Amino acid sequence: MAESGAPPTIREPSLADALIPLLTLAVSIGGALALFGMQALDGPIQTALIVCCMVAALIALKNGHSWASVQKAGQGALASITSAIFILLAVGALIGTWNLSGTIPTLVYYGIQALSPTWYYVASAVICGVIALSIGSSWTTAGTIGVGLVGIASMLEVSTAITAGAVISGAYLGDKLSPLSETTILSSQMVKVNVYTHIRNQFWTSVPAFLFAAVIFTLLGLGRVDAEGQTELQKVVELDSLNGIYRITAWNLLPLLLLVVMSVRKFPASISLLLSAMFAGILGAFMQPAVYAGFAGEESLGIGGAVKAIWQAMANGFRMESGVADVDQLLSRGGMSSMLHTLWLIMGAVTFGALLDEFGLIKRLINPLIYRAKTIGGLFLTVFASAFGLNVVAGDQYIALVLPTRIFRAEFAKRGLAPQNLSRLAADCGTVTSPLVPWNSCGAFMAAVLGVPTLLYLPFCLFNIASPALSVLYGYTGFKLVKLDTPLSPEPEREA
Predict the structure, then answer these.
(1) Residue 167 in contact with residue 146, Cβ under 8 Å?
(2) Dihedral, CA atoms, 473, 479, 480, 484, nearest 10 degrees?
(3) Model confidence over 107-119: pLDDT tens digits?
(4) Alpha-carbon distance 142 to 213, whole Å?
């Protein structure tokens, strides 16, 4: 028996310890979806995740860990998403002021004229791919250009769910192949390979996966050719509505140009988004005085009314009552307050994942899988299962990217596989699948900014599905696998 005052004995978690939180997650999330449907993300799933955190904490205490250790793990989880919190709040403010100032209506106005419904889905994917490649951020791309493209889709009477899938497919293609992307840099750093070596290796899964997605998006668009006549009539109605409410001019796109310039120059994302939001608010006061006055409840716009309108749009979003349902639905969005449910979701999910990682519950599940993966293909499938599983249970793409690279790095070296194989596989399976999980930080973000529930756009994230499938297939076939000249002795494992 331990002496009085001696530190408690820490016990390794059992298989039951590792499974109980996951079963709790599955039952509670499944129950929330069954009872509340799409409204489950308005609170029930968040509550379920907090309960799962409690279960994981109780298991840690049962195994001898102190409550101080549990608190420290939770604090670390919340510290890790500080950047994401400010990005989400800034995106909410940006959507509000971009709608108020006419930036998004102008994007929609020009987009309706330029984009044909027949090619709309594939064009959305390509546009978002180019933007994300240029600025290195899937979140910024979806939260700006993506919002406009989904808005245009509703007015062209094309599927907003397919459009959201196309936006996400393009955004993640550009994010994966951009040397400016923080997840791309992190993927290469975790396995200690040059970032451009990692990107070249990524081409072999990313480009074929995107070409597959582009073909399917093209076919889906061609299937709408019979609806062209009705869509043309809809175009005229919506264009007249937007032009009657706003002063449509290319000057309204200056906030978008500012955002692109700051992103390319590597300004922090939250600062870039917030500055663009504030600049749009100030610019719009000169360009759209009637809109500002109406929103602020003033007969004519003065400085006080302009400040009130900008402040309200950043805080609670913009609201429009034009009498045209599609226009009102497009423009009545945004505000930092609109992101609070999403933040609640992310905080619960990331804290749960941190507790599972900190107290060895994830390793207890993954280590037996590594032992059973006798072939290279089996090893690749195990990495996929681990990365996607971490997106589900940990709720954060960074956990799903970092942990597999850390856990499997020694095993890849032992089997004579160059580290860039693992960095590509982890990015394909961890980063790219993150928006497919409703309570993951990326899935919650995409659903919040695009206004399309994750489970509706999921089947159309064709790139995000094809990319990990190709990566695992290469493991079974040996195609484009880089081998080491001689297998390396694995480094001793360090505790997480």
Answers:
(1) yes
(2) 100
(3) 878 877 777 788 8
(4) 17
Q: Of how many residues is the chain composed?
A: 496
pLDDT higher for 398 or 274? 274
Could you tell me the two tokens for 260? 């692109």
Among candidate residues 405, 398, 391, the one with its CA nearest the CA of residue 349: 391
Residue with tokens 């970032």: 195
What is the DSSP-derived secondary structure letter of residue 103?
Answer: H
Residue 483 sits at φ, ψ, to 5 deg, of -100, 150
In terms of Cβ atoms closer than 10 Å to its own Cβ (0-12, 13-18, 19+), residue 340 is middle
CA-wise closest residue to 47 among 361, 395, 349: 349
Averaged pLDDT score across all residues of the chain: 85
HEC per residue, 308-340: HHHHHHHHHCCCCCCCCHHHHHHHCCCCHHHHH
Q: Which neighbouring-strand residues pair with 483?
A: 417
Residue 289 tokens, joined: 């005085």
pTM above 0.70, yes or no: yes
Are 158 and 287 in contact by the 8 Å Cβ rule? The answer is no
Could you give phi then psi for residue 265, rounded to 5 degrees?
-85, 10
Is residue 26 a contact partner of residue 393, using CB atoms and an 8 Å limit?
A: no
pLDDT in tens, 164-211: 999 999 999 998 988 767 788 778 877 888 888 888 999 999 999 999
How many angstroms separate the CA atoms of 333 and 36, rounded? Answer: 23
Domain map (residue ranges) of the chain: 101-339
Residue pair 220/161 in contact (Cβ under 8 Å)? The answer is no
Give the pLDDT mean for 405-425.
87
Angle at 354 between CA 352 and CA 355, to 5 degrees: 65
Please state, in angstroms and as integers, the Cα–Cα distance from residue 329 to each residue in 229, 322, 332, 413, 468, following that order: 23, 10, 6, 53, 35
